[in-house]
Every structure is written in C-alpha cells, then in structure tokens.
Amino acid sequence: MAPTHVLRCCQRGLAWIPVIFIALVVCWSYYAYVVELCVLTIPSIGEKIVYLIFFHISFILFVWSYFKTIFTQPANPSKEFCLPKAEKERYEKEGRPESQQEILWRAATSLPLYTRTGAGAIRYCDRCQVIKPDRCHHCSACDMCVLKMDHHCPWVNNCVGFSNYKFFILFLAYSLVYCLFIAATVLQYFIKFWTNELPDSHAKFHVLFLFFVAAMFCISILSLFSYHLWLVGKNRSTIEAFRAPVFRSGSDKNGFSLGFRKNMAQVFGDQKKYWLLPVFTSQGDGLTFPARLVNAADVEQAAVTLQSEPSKSADEIPVSPVTEAQNRLLSNDQHANNIGDHQANHILKPAESETITISMEGGS
Hints:
Elements: H1 2-14, H2 17-39, H3 45-71, H4 85-93, H5 97-108, E1 115-116, E2 124-125, E3 130-131, E4 137-139, E5 144-146, E6 151-153, E7 158-160, H6 165-194, H7 202-234, H8 238-242, E8 246-247, E9 250-251, H9 260-268, H10 296-307, H11 332-345
Antiparallel strand pairs: 1-8, 2-3, 4-5, 6-7, 8-9
Helix pairs in contact: 2-3, 2-7, 3-6, 4-5, 5-11, 6-7
C-alpha cells in the first residue's frame, strides 16, 4: 500500500513539470521583452510606452486565464447520480451483468439521462460508483468523473471540462495574442540584429530567441485554438468529436448542437460583455444539457408528452425541435416508460467501461 501511495505522489509531482516549464518560459519572455527589448534596445520613448502598455494588457489576460484553467477544480456528478446504499450493495453482490443493469435502469428513472453506452446500457462508473450524467467521463489521470469532459491537458495539469472550458479557450486565445504581439513587435529588431545594423550586446541573444520562441508557439497554438473554436461552434467536446454520443435512437454527432449562437452561449454565457474575461459564465449546471430531438419519432413523442400536461400554457411549449436549457427532452413519465420498454424488449449487454484520458500534445 505504501509503495503505491509513494508512486502516486511522485506521479502528481512529475505532472507539474510541463506547467513549470511554461511558467519559466513566460517569465523569461517577460524579462526579455520588457528589459532587454523595451528598456535597453528601443531608442524611442513613445514606442517604448505603447509597446509596454499593450504588452502588459495581453500578458495579464494570458496569465489570468492560464491560472484559472490550472486551478479551477473539475466539476463532478452530484449525489443524486450515486446509487442508494441498498441498491449499491445489491449491485455489488449481483454477478450477472443483466441483473446489474436492471438495478441501474431502476435508479435512472428519476435522472435526466439521454445518452447510453454503445450497447444501449446505462453509463456507470465502477471506479467512482456513480451513474454518469450526459457528457460525463472518467479521467484516469485525475481519477474522477468529470462533467462534460473535453480532455486531460498536461500543459495545465488539469482536466478540461464544464467548469473550466471557457478559461481554456481564453487561455489559448490570449496566449496566441501574446505570442503574435511579441513576434510582430520584435521582428524589426530581430532583422536589425541579424543584419548587424545594431551593435552586438547581451540583448541580441534575447531578442533573437524571443522571436523564434514566439513564432514557434504561434504556429502550435493557432492550430489548437482553431480546432477548439470549431468544437465550440458544433457544441462538441474532443471526446465527442472522436466518438459520437449514443442516444436512445442511436449515435448522433450533432445531438447537442443547437445552432452556432446557442452553442457559443453554452460555453461563454448570455452576457457578451463577459465573454472575453476569465470569469465563469457558462450556461447550465454540467449535469443536464439541452439536446435537439434526433428524429421525427422523438418529435411526435415529445408532442404527445406536452399535450398530456394541460397545466402548461401555450407559451411554455417550444415551437422548435430544440429544447431550452434545463428542460427535459421528454417528461419523467415518458422517460420511465421508455426505460420499462427497453427492459422488457431487450437483453442488455454488459456496460462498457469508459475510462478516458485524452492528452492534447504540443499545444494545449
């Protein structure tokens, strides 16, 4: 037991090496730009002031979003997704996967679950002993289930998911702005040092390498930032981009897509004045997500469910096949009936283990 604990501690310590590396590079870039370039190399006072103002704005936003991405705790499933004590004991004692799934289906009748495993079973994490909410996955690096997990990023030593995905996007955006600004303003002095128009000094080394490092990071960050902007526009996570979520009617890669504007609002929130600030404004609670109805049969079933509830006014009935945030695709009664039909008509296969760790190498 002790060696395992020591090994785990060593792994956690080593996981901070990429973060420390980035921190050292950022600290050196600050010194090289502010001291070696602006103070010692640039002759014009006005040019120095303008460069320093815009540099510090981009630097503060970059460091702020990076800090929030690293130290925001990943969101986990709430207690309502844990099996009751009696049901958990029955689940652990059952040897047959079919019987275990029956227990999970009964527990899931009161939960807002619309995604399944590839075999059509309830998604259950044996490691965390919790029924997985939609878009939730287990991260083996963090050893926990993470709401709307996107990937585990070694460059922030954290899981990127519902609680910090906006911060991660802003971190990529501001790191790109930071590198582009440095590369653009250093370029003319890089050329002057390279062609010996400026005398050799200790600043020459810093200016030359500052341009190379900024340009290198620009290329890698640009590709990753573009990819994640595309994911936000499609309302997909990195995991869902590689493996489409499975709904009751089958897999649908666009199952959570509500249109570009609503997809953006899911991550950045309704108030655009906060979009560019690393403060949490994402919609929802991470446990339930609005999803479009995947086929005509679902539209008809949803209409029947709404008509069976006369207490609702006409204004409360959606006119499009896309649900609003925090609404259910079907009522709990309809959801329970679907689960009962599934138990009666299908023999469930064992639930698949979904332990996932995706590391975005080279850029995240």
